[in-house]
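QA checklist item 7 of 12: single-chain prediction sanity check.
[x] sequence parsed
[x] length recorded as 170
[x] structure emitted
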Amino acid sequence: MTADRVYNVLFLCTGNSARSIIAEAILNRLGTGKFKAYSAGSQPKGEVHPYTIDLLKGLNYRTEFARSKNWDEFAAPGAPQMDFVFTVCDNAASESCPVWPGQPMTAHWGVPDPAAAEGEEAERRFAFAETYRMLHNRISIFTSLPMTTLDKLALQKRLDEIGRDLPKAG
């Protein structure tokens, strides 16, 4: 890991309509100049969930980047070489992934699917806000890691720790 380059990060989920899109937006904001984020799905829905767009716009994120796409796009010749690949939903973590050129570091940072939330509109929108909060916390920790001073084993340990639930206060 060197300090003078931008690291490519791919967030994977099944539908690529909510969690992975939110993670892509967060990392592209928090990691400007250090990371470039992408997202994809194993079975993309073909459209981004409207609550995802509403949430991001409400938090002053640009949303024109957001499109639901297949992870094969990032395993094809000419695709950006990934340094990190993170699964953000349980289904994508257990599915067989394409072979990623360059052997990126991987970790599972699963969060509940806000698109599967039930109840009144306010409850469903709250599920999207909670997804954002959890991913923002994890990505904030990730972007603060001292990439250039951690060896690969120590970095992998930290990536795995980020994916586990943080201890509750008190």
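[x] summary fact logged: Residues 121-144 form the longest helix (24 residues).
[ ] second reviewer sign-off
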